[in-house]
Amino acid sequence: MFNKIAIIGCGLIGSSILRSIKEYKIAKKVNIFDKSKDVFTFLKKENLIEGTNDINQSVRDADLIVIATPLGAYKEILLSIKDDLKKNIILTDTGSAKKEINKIIENLNLKEISWIASHPIAGTEESGPQAGFHKLFKDRYCIISPSQEAKKEDVEKLKKFWEKIGCKVKTMSFEEHDHILSLTSHLPHAIAYNLVRTAISKEDQFKKEIIQYSAGGLRDFTRIASSDPTMWKDIFKDNSENILKALDNFSNNLVELKEAIKEKNESKLIQIFSKTKNVRKEIIEAGQDTNKPDFGRKKD
Amino acid sequence: MFNKIAIIGCGLIGSSILRSIKEYKIAKKVNIFDKSKDVFTFLKKENLIEGTNDINQSVRDADLIVIATPLGAYKEILLSIKDDLKKNIILTDTGSAKKEINKIIENLNLKEISWIASHPIAGTEESGPQAGFHKLFKDRYCIISPSQEAKKEDVEKLKKFWEKIGCKVKTMSFEEHDHILSLTSHLPHAIAYNLVRTAISKEDQFKKEIIQYSAGGLRDFTRIASSDPTMWKDIFKDNSENILKALDNFSNNLVELKEAIKEKNESKLIQIFSKTKNVRKEIIEAGQDTNKPDFGRKKD
Q1: Closest CB to A280 among B96, B222, B276
Q2: Could you list the residue range(s) of the whole structural domain that residue B30 is in?
Q3: Hey, is the C-beta of A273 within 8 angstroms of any chain B C-beta?
Q4: Residues B124 and B192 in one domain
């Protein structure tokens, strides 16, 4: 499908892409670059890569380049590689926010390159190449957002690439992506971080008990709140406008909920809770979660 | 262990206790009462009960009475049964908040009865007797809070009862229970309800897409936000003081997080996110969740 693919950044996502490319024989050659020597050494030991850990060499002659680093590293990477890019190649990424990267690409004014942003919605709360596995993308959505300059045939080619490694591909604009993800992913992460921080406070003399009894709800949030801090710091920076708007809506709704609790307003509370119960049904109907109780943690 | 047990309210929790009593042969006789005839008919069809659906008959001669209804039904139930109670029996419940029920019991001035509040921290997001199963309590904590009048031997007996059906029993005061649960369970539920309500709005033209891409974080909250509205309305009423305090702390922390996002304050964001990552480790070390990625939803 490709002669040579270069993957810049080989953590959970990058190394899973690497494993998929190997598993499904998608490219004759794959080179990677990771700023951490340990990552490179690990992947070499696993027989997943050849060559050296050189960013310029890795992208030279590549006809597909995938950037899979935290968003904050994009600018430096693009400045480093821009003179090594062949003409008519596809440049993509795996980032969770699209506004800033598009600004960077626009400013670089890359010629005859198909820049098509990608966002495979897949991952676990773990990070690093040890956590990667080739089935990470199976049945998961991948949103692609082609730039105006991207060739139609390249968009089709990249679509097929993601499909081959297991994704269901959807196309939307950068702006739509950033709005939708701010609600499905970025807001939930901000809230989870804030909730765990509020519930577990060093000053609480019952901190030990709070951890002990966390199965009553809190533990579900700690999974999300243990996602990679560097990655998430960048997402909150790059999609700050959408996220702040969502947080303001959240705060306004919270004022209303607090009022209902203060007034012991039963009908209002029932109304709020019933609406969200229906959302769960819609999510299960959309195939986005199972209806197995307690995420399958039911004892058998 | 007991001659006769009466269970008032036979939904998810009550019917699971019923199934456990049968499974482990804990009582010679079990009677139940549920205000829904359908519940009674269902349990009779499943051969789990005998007798009639009469609240007074069900508690007469019982030496253990378990109230497993939503908190809001307690007062009416206790008024109905108080003249049918034998002396020297154990009265317990399964409720998630303890302040109001204790007020009710105090006002009723029940004589020679061991009132020992119980809270088995077990459940799924489902409700109703069809959702019950006898292993629901296996390895889950049950917090008991004995009243001052409860006999020591009765506390020991009830402890053994919960242990027999699978629980690890811990004893604490009503006040400690309500404080700890406000943080481990009630606050997370309030926040989950509020988050789902904020993310999924009818007015958003991308509502369909937001549901479609909910695997990025939102779906984890919808499970909690689909818990039984009646049950939760009562919990928020009965433990409102602790919950409002926790929500105020949450709001104050959220203001700080918003500021950090607005200012693109990288070090502050990293600091917040790193702290919560450590909490996750403590929860796994306490055996309250597994460290399997993505709650075991990793593809195999």
Answers
A1: B222
A2: 2-172
A3: yes
A4: no
Sheet holding A27-33, edge to edge: A27-33, A2-8, A64-67, A89-93, A113-120, A141-146, A168-171
Asked if residue A94 is part of any domain, the answer here is yes
Q: Mark whether B51 and B155 lie in a shared domain.
A: yes
Q: Which amino acid is at B103?
A: K
* Mean pLDDT within B132-151: 95
Q: What span, in angstroms and rounded, lies between the C-alpha atoms of B113 and B149?
A: 8
B254 and B158 share one domain: no
Band (pLDDT 50/70/90 cuts) for residue B31 is very high
Its pTM stands at 0.90
Q: What angle do CA A277, A262, B147 make, to 5 degrees?
A: 90
| Residues A209-232: tens digit of each pLDDT | 999 998 888 988 998 898 889 999
Q: Does B126 touch chain A (CB under 8 A)?
A: yes
pLDDT band at B299 (very low <50, low <70, confident <90, very high): very low
State the CATH number of the domain containing residue A260: 1.10.3660.10
Total domains present in chain B: 2
ipTM score above 0.90: no
Q: Which residue of B has its CA nearest to A273?
A: B229
Chain A residues lying within 8 Å of B211, measured CB to CB: 279, 282-283, 286, 288
Q: Are residues A22 and A160 located together in one domain of the fold?
A: yes
